[in-house]
Design a protein that fits this description.
Two copies of one chain form a homodimer. The first copy, chain A, folds into two domains: about 1-100 and about 265-355, Isopropylmalate Dehydrogenase; about 100-255, Isopropylmalate Dehydrogenase. Chain A is globular and about 50 Å long. Chain A has twelve helices and twelve strands. With about 350 residues, chain A is of the alpha/beta class. In chain A, the strands form two sheets. Chain A has a ten-stranded mixed beta sheet with strand order 2-1-3-12-11-4-5-10-8-9, with helices on both faces. In chain A, strands 6-7 form a two-stranded antiparallel ribbon. Chains A and B meet through strand 6, strand 7, helix 7, helix 8 and helix 9 of A and strand 6, strand 7, helix 7, helix 8 and helix 9 of B. Bound molecules: magnesium ion (2 copies). One magnesium ion binds near residues 242 and 246 of chain A. One magnesium ion (MG) binds near residues 242 and 246 of chain B. Chains A, B: It catalyses: (2R,3S)-3-isopropylmalate + NAD(+) = 4-methyl-2-oxopentanoate + CO2 + NADH. Chains A, B: Pathway: Amino-acid biosynthesis; L-leucine biosynthesis; L-leucine from 3-methyl-2-oxobutanoate: step 3/4. Chains A, B: Its EC number is 1.1.1.85. Chains A, B: Homodimer.
């Protein structure tokens, strides 16, 4: 039996509902597999601005830094659009404080769900990839200049920044199908040549058991649409990762099934669904908890090293989808709490099956 | 009757075959509509390296600068992979000498061809867009630095560079469905804020009759896959345009039907299919001339201001596709010259229909 300290940041809109579903899944996993999860709920985003005038209060920060992993619901909403402090600042602050430099975005299309995809079913059915995006460097965080007639942005990468995120990708590949596709534009830009050299060196020195290939960003955009099944882990710098992970996110035909993780060098991480706070349906028990449950599965696997438990949760989620217990956004009639409860029940069933 | 000087650069591999098809189409258009096209064939790329040891000989340059428009077949091939001079240098040289700063990449999916697309037919059938990409600035041409442990690339844009390519997009929109979607990342980078401000100012001052919307590059990548029919002209800077035009190019399911243009400020331009030199099938009359014929249609429209003639050629191409006169790459059995001849015949038929 292991003990884990989990901080939950429910946030705004549908955040509390989906975070609650995540907590129930963790409690059930703890119960079934004999782990001791302790939970602390803290404020972030709009609710924190409203309550203590700070999107990322100091006690939230202290709790996150002391936790084994953090689960976030969602932040933001039109309510805070015209306010000086923005809910999204809470998200940037927690990422920065926890030193999170790798964003993990899995995308998979179960055969039973391929009909939802904008792609033809035979192309996308069974696709299962993980995009590992560098989160703190590159053009988005570079020096900028501006005059009346010109503007510049600088893209900067260091060997160390590339190495640490590449390490995350290689480690993730070892837990998956053992293949990394590293994306760059090394035929044109210098930061991409540094990127490719660094990835190659690290691969040769420490990860030669993992299959490594390189792809140019423009080719990769094409591959995601024409042969998404050919990829396992996709490693990429910040801006290319922004574009490619958003492109990949539309392939399942619904973002309601997608989770994400942001990791630092300690293995601790922040887990959240990729959907937003959807204030229009908040409090109505309509929100789809599946993206959060997939995020919890990632937490089990990447921060808590509980891969059997993660497999069980994945199987439970898949079973509930197959049984057609789906929220409105997926064409079903179930409430969010019905889906959440069904997954918890399936965790118990799948654990017995697996045992 | 108008007179036009056309330079043809057949180039390497299948280049001469497809360029020949382009010439036949122009000759037929001239014959039917009473225009006087004169043709000059010049060397570029690998053949020019082999013959005069220069991928872009001076007399080719002089002819291109004196021409009303230039039609290029294709350059390059493995034969020159290990040579010091590269065929592709010819392409960069002609673009630079002619001052070509706007790359136009149309993408359309006729309903009869939607079955080829990786996208579901209802999503893509009838899509018809034109991507206008800035071709000489941004990260790909910026200052670079490199040390053992760091690398940088600079992205620079000036108001003048943005204005001149935006003008091409607005003018093209007026000849199409009168809508421009300008792509940037203005929520994060400075060059994108300059881009958006400049596009907005030019729109207000000179093109307020054209509908203008803005999209972030990551969102645009998603839109291309989920709702490609919603776009007419897409305007974007160099690197975003590289990624998005390649992404768009896979939507028809074959690159054999796609042409392109590169334009400067005088209206003169370079026209070429987007496919490569395909040396493996060169000289066998298997190459699909349709990408070149679409490029010729763009030449008629954008450089020669012959829109009725362009419409006729487009209709001729569509009629030949509908009749199933297709090369192997499109699942047909016709030779390249059979397709070329069929389009020429259809130009005569369509011109009479239209008259
Ligand atoms: Mg994004
Ligand atoms: Mg490209």
């Amino acid at each position: 039996m292991s003990a884990f300290k989990i901080v939950i940041l429910p946030g705004d809109g549908i955040g509390p509902e989906v975070a609650g579903a995540g907590r129930l899944a963790l409690e059930t996993v703890g119960d079934v597999f004999g782990h001791d999860f302790t939970f602390e709920e803290k404020m972030i985003g709009g609710i924190a601005i409203d309550t203590v005038d700070d999107p990322y209060p100091a006690d939230t920060d202290a709790a996150c830094l002391a936790a084994d992993a953090v689960l976030l619901g969602a932040v933001g909403g039109p309510k805070w659009d015209l306010k000086p402090k923005r809910p999204e600042q809470g998200l940037l602050a927690v990422r920065k404080s926890m030193g999170l430099f790798a964003n993990l975005r899995p995308m998979d299309v179960a055969p039973s769900q391929a009909f939802r995809s904008p792609l033809k079913e035979d192309i996308v059915s069974g696709a299962d990839m993980l995009i590992v995006r560098e989160l703190t460097g590159g053009l988005y965080f570079g020096k900028r200049t501006r005059t009346e007639t010109t503007a510049t942005d600088e893209c900067l990468y260091t060997v160390e920044e590339v190495e640490r995120v590449a390490r995350v990708a290689f480690e993730a590949a070892r837990k998956r199908r053992n293949k990394v596709t590293s994306v760059d534009k090394a035929n044109v830009i210098e930061t991409s040549r540094l990127w490719r050299e660094t990835v190659n060196k690290l691969h040769a020195a420490e990860y030669s058991d993992v299959e490594l290939e390189h792809a140019l960003v423009d080719s990769m955009a094409m591959h995601l649409v024409t042969r998404p099944k050919d990829f396992d882990v996709i490693l990429t710098e910040n801006m290319f990762g922004d574009i490619l992970s958003d492109l990949a996110s539309v392939l399942p035909g619904s973002i309601g099934l997608l989770g994400s993780a942001s990791l630092g060098s300690t293995g601790k991480g922040l887990y959240e669904p990729i959907h937003g706070s959807a204030p229009d349906i908040a409090g109505k028990d309509l929100a789809n908890p599946m993206g959060t449950l997939k995020s919890v599965s990632m937490m089990l696997r990447h921060s808590l090293n509980l891969s059997k438990e993660a497999d069980t949760l994945d199987a439970a989620i898949e079973a509930v989808i197959k049984a057609g217990i789906l929220t409105r956004d997926l064409g079903g009639t179930a409430s969010g709490s019905q889906v959440s409860k069904a997954v918890a029940d399936q965790i118990r069933i799948q654990a017995n099956v697996a045992a």
